[in-house]
Amino acid sequence: xxxxxxxxxxxxxxxxxxxxxxxxxxxxxxxxxxxxxxxxxxxxxxxxxxxxxxxxxxxxxxxxxxxxxxxxxxxxxxxxxxxxxxxxxxxxxxxxxxxxxxxxxxxxxxxxxxxxxxxxxxxxxxxxxxxxxxxxxxxxxxxxxxxxxxxxxxxxxxxxxxxxxxxxxxxxxxxxxxxxxxxxxxxxx
Length: 189
Description:
The protein is α/β, with parallel strands linked by helices. It has one domain (about 10-70, about 105-189): Rossmann fold, CATH 3.40.50. It is built from 6 helices and 5 strands; from the N terminus they run H-E-H-E-H-H-E-H-H-E-E. Helix 2 links the parallel strand 1 (about 35) and strand 2.
């Protein structure tokens, strides 16, 4: 986190890079996977690592980006957490100019739908994105109301670096937020 740099340009930390590299190294099922990513730096850095293992290019979509928080810019952690709580608690209201949670959910669901329509039905697909819109997507596929209780910081490991497995056609949540270190090769069978 660097208040002098716009949030979408923040990269992975050294710990984040090491965790991502370890995940990729022990995930042979990534070979041949189609990799979609947000255009934001952290997501792209993860996607590029996965695509290096996959052997496929990274396909990006602006609509896979994190919820738009540009109205407030960087917020100190305690203030950010308060805003995030309010974002999830009132999904049809903007929190100090932030994109509404319901609008962000509609955007990420439409983006994932379009991405999946562009690949064969039996393709292995990896989406590299962000915690809030990931939670909104997860709530959609699980048939749950929008809730911060479903966020990766509540269900997975702290500090990001989590994934979940879903079937978009059903839709169904198959495996909830899981830290990279606990994602097994069976996810890619």
